[in-house]
Amino acid sequence: MYQHVTPYLGDPILSLVETFVNDKRAHKVNLSIGIYFDNEGKMPLPESVRKAAAEIGVKAQSYLPMEGHTGLREELAKLVLGDEHAAITEKRVAVVQSLGGSGALKLGADFLKKWFGQSKAYISAPTWDNHRGIFEGAGFEVGTYPYYDAQTIGIKFAEMTAFFNTLPENSIVILHPCCHNPTGVDLTPAQWDEVLEIVKTRKLIAFMDIAYLGFGDSFAEDAYAVRRAADLGIALFVSASFSKNMSLYGERVGGLLVVTPNEAEKELVLGQLKAGVRRIYSSPSAHGGLTAYGVLSNPARKQAWQAEVYQMRDRIKAMRQKLYETLSQMLPEKDFSYFIKQRGMFSYTGLSPEQVQRLQDEFAIYILQSGRLCVAGLNDGNIDYVAQSLAKVFANQ
Ligand code: KET
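A: This is the predicted complex of the input protein with KET.
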């Protein structure tokens, strides 16, 4: 019956986590998946989120509406676009609570395929692998645009803008407003201005995936590109996630925002997004949605939460610094400054697939085959071991 079903080749991130879990070595270190761990190696629940969850308690939960919790949807728009953004006051932002950032990407991709079926989608080279998976799964042909420059450990900016200048109207460009996954290399605000000017002039559709809001500089600075795109009146989709910044990974809570030209079109878009939700999973998580709402709707708690996110951000930065200093001491001829320049949870190490395999086989240290290392998995207890192991692998000793 099922002999024609092709075997699943596995996922570059989630399948590696399975291998890690099955690894019996006690000193193993997981620097693969983008999850924040604290200095004790535990996944912490921010105090502000714990309080919000405690208020909900354990009780029967009715279904949320298809589009999710109304208050959360309003708070999410304010968080991403800024409290007073004209798109919000003019009631032209369609917001749907989603199953994490992945769910938002899927809803947006399905919507775009249905209503802009001729468009092609473009992802950065490289990007989070699932961008391709989700957009191809929605039926798109997916191309790549130039982004990361391994020589300079920076961005191929001229090539990127030249490429955008060739794209036809309504092409979909998937962008990372902050904390680029997997490279950790972001555009500057001035570069964003230039890119978004092209997006506007060529009438492209910007799909911004902001899964690491708060982990770069600040909430406002991390959202710069999103707010600028909304200011410019660009056709804008935003997939947001509370997985990382609220540590609500397993609750599956995030949201999709579509900034439209006017309230009437907003209603049309929202209606079709609701139809999309109903067809796939009917309605989102009540417990996750209420928890996130409980954080964002209380001004003092929201502020406390943002401060907690900044603590996570700063701990990651401290680990970057430590890794940079230790590696520089051990291999002074090599320039490791990229570890402190890159932002967000990830560092693109430049290690080859063979070196990555050696880290795993010989040292029980797990990073992605692409060379992406999750800095948020480092702590005072494992950083020396990781740095020493990395130094050996970098030196091919
Ligand atoms: N977008 C990006 C850029 C991203 O890195 C992730 C998750 C998501 C969306 C998905 O968010 P969620 O709210 O969990 O649906 N990335 C990490 C985990 C994963 O691969 O699923 C990672 O890159 O390790």
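The pocket of KET is lined by residues 13, 33-34, 100-102, 128, 181, 209, 211, 241, 243, 254 (CB under 6 Å). The chain has a mean pLDDT of 97.
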